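RECORD TYPE: protein structure
NAME: Jasmonate O-methyltransferase-like
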Amino acid sequence: MEVRRVLYMKGGVGDESYARNSTMQGTILSLTNTVVQEAVTDMYCTTFLKSIAVADLGCSSGPNALLVASEIIETVKRKCRQLRRRLPELSLLLNDLPGNDFNTIFRYLPEFYRRKGLNQGNGTTHGRCFVSAVPGSFYGRLFPSKSLHFVHSSSSLHWLSQVPPELQSESNMPLNKGKIFISKTSPPCVSDAYAKQFHRDFSLFLKCRSEEIITGGQMVLTFMSRRSSDPVVEEHSYLWELLGQVLIDMASEGLIEVEKVDSFDAPFCTPSPEELKHEIESEGSFAIKSLELFEASWEAAHNHQNCYNKATKEKDPMLEELSTAQRIAKGIRAVTESMLESHFGEAMIEDIFSRYCRHLEDYCSSNDTKLFNIVIAMVRK
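PREDICTED:
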């Protein structure tokens, strides 16, 4: 699987789009607001720059893409009012893989500028904001040296740059046969392969950002994690385990090839807090300011979205009428459809997610649906 080519969130604003089915990601952004505010305030009060460059890595598409920018702008405004300083210009650099639907983000910009009282050209008393798209993988250089003051990424770094190559044996036989992620029945070499790939990717990510961020610049990262050092836990793997079961069922019915299932592995990893801390300290360019593990449930995400809709008077009747399992299935589809379609074909997608939703209904009837995430704030040494 060529991850850079096939991994992108479902574009547009239709019923199956990421824009309509990313309430969990929006809730996670809201839960980490305080960490972002503190980091931005610290960065600004340390530098008092006239122009601030902010990069949001893995911004995806839809309304969530501008939530962090909105929070950063409001934070700087408040601090400038307190200190009676002129507002700095803001350069907002939105990054994602080339397949991302940047056009949907751009369509939100006029309303975004209006709500924030911003202007790209002559400026207003509320300041200027310049928005750019930067397509490319964040597992590589994206920006000029020492050009960034604040970097943010949410719900993105659990995606790997590639499926771990160690999952293929020397004879080119799949080592995780019948599974698409780490499972209790997977051999130990599978979890080792994922750990090695995460190490390669995250250490490269830190190295690239260390070259792009100024000394004293700040970075806040949020992504899925796990509480235990044991990689075989159900906290996130149940989402892949159930999807894998769907594919196995379809293969047993002759709808898809068994070899297709055996050759599909998720480019996804959820490290523990201890592993992350070790990686950051080993790379050495950043000092950890705070590191916090927190949980968010799909039900809480739905309740949060309802509160958001009431505040903004924006309602989505489709989502309000769905069960928890249906919302999860739509959320996972918006994220994984591009990969599954590339591997199994477009004709299989509806059947895959119809079955997936039924499996989730059974799971949700007797299990919790919370997910664990980690938020890390750090400063460039």
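COMMENT: DSSP finds 13 helices and seven strands in the chain.
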